[in-house]
Amino acid sequence: MKYWPVLLLGLLPLWAQAVEVGERLAPWTLLDQFDQAYTLDHQTQTLLVARSMDAAKLVDAALKGEPKGYLEARHVVFLADIQRMPRLIAKMFAVPAMRDYSYRVMLDREGRVAPRYPGAVDKVLWLQLKDGQLVAQHEYATAAQLHEALEKAGP
Question: 87: exposed, middle or buried (C-beta count within 10 Å: 0-12, 13-18, 19+)?
Answer without folding.
Answer: exposed
